[in-house]
Amino acid sequence: xxxxxxxxxxxxxxxxxxxxxxxxxxxxxxxxxxxxxxxxxxxxxxxxxxxxxxxxxxxxxxxxxxxxxxxxxxxxxxxxxxxxxxxxxxxxxxxxxxxxxxxxxxxxxxxxxxxxxxxxxxxxxxxxxxxxxxxxxxxxxxxxxxxxxxxxxxxxxxxxxxxxxxxxxxxxxxxxxxxxxxxxxxxxxxxxxxxxxxxxxxxxxxxxxxxxxxxxxxxxxxxxxxxxxxxxxxxxxxxxxxxxxxxxxxxxxxxxxxxxxxxxxxxxxxxxxxxxxxxxxxxxxx
Length: 286
Description:
By secondary structure, this protein is of the alpha+beta class. It is built from six helices and 15 strands.
């Protein structure tokens, strides 16, 4: 359960750390668990619509994530995510889904996998997209500037700024991008065909070596994901954020999820993931 004190993070970074060294520190200081239970309340904003709910999340590391969402103490949604499957029950609409990660990819218009989702809810670093060789991927990251946090990015600030700050030859950049989009991205594919326009920025707390915030963007498809963690509390001998904010922006919608973690339990014993679908429920087809 929560300690009574929030972590204090100093105002200075000390020496700059190159991405490989920073990545090493992040991995060595990541949150460790076998089984984890989170109780939380949350606000979900989709456009101007707001939903309030509470929930319980159970997680067995690298294996399964089970989520029960409630409103007025009545369960409305249950989710079970494993390495290769997504299961979803909507008790209010009496529908269900059993299949792969296409359900989440289509719903949120971003490529997702199990490792990414587990990392988001445990304040852990992840690569986007996931590389075959992590050592090679981190060697391509660059240092970026922040006055109080360590910062690294998968693209140089100079290259990133040319897409957003360049004013003199905006038409030339638009024509260049249009050509590259036509050459690299197929219109019938959800996702991306090239990593050149997928940017990742990570800022890290210098005292804890935990992710403070992370920004991901697919420039071509105008998709972005921003994750921010707040109020690090001591749980046993490790720190865990009290607040998690997730914002997804796509050409068709903007969604913002604000989670307030109310309790955390780390358990070495196995846990159950009950998931039974009623015969009366209708299957959701993609």
